[in-house]
Design brief:
Elements lengths: L10 H10 L4 H71 L4 H24 L20
Length: about 140
Amino acid sequence: MRAKTEIRLTPGQRLSRGLKYSAVGPVDVTRGALGLGVDGAQHSAAWIGDVYRRSRLKDQLRQELAAAQDTIASELAAAQEVVANLPEALQKARGRRRRRPVLLAVLGVGVLAGGAVAFSILRRPPTEEPPTLQPSVPVTPRP
């Protein structure tokens, strides 16, 4: 049994083989030339597609960049307005002081103190109660 493997030739190999062998030359030369032409056309079409995709991507990135710049400009304007109104807001806040921070501080200290008391109670060693049963073995004092 003999395995027959057919090796596919590239168009360039086919052209060189066609020029090399005169018996199959015209057929191989024709097939090689057509193959090189088709490969060139495919490569050119792929290159044109890549150029087109890159140009669309650049346009898309350009649009996204312009939108981001507009957003940043509006955010910056809003931040400037807030900073400009900051002295008035601070003045209003100083005018009406609240006792809430003091109340929150007192409540916080109370919660911490309660937690400390609970922790100390839970961490106490249990008191040992004397056993209520008499020992089963008589206890003799040591001399």
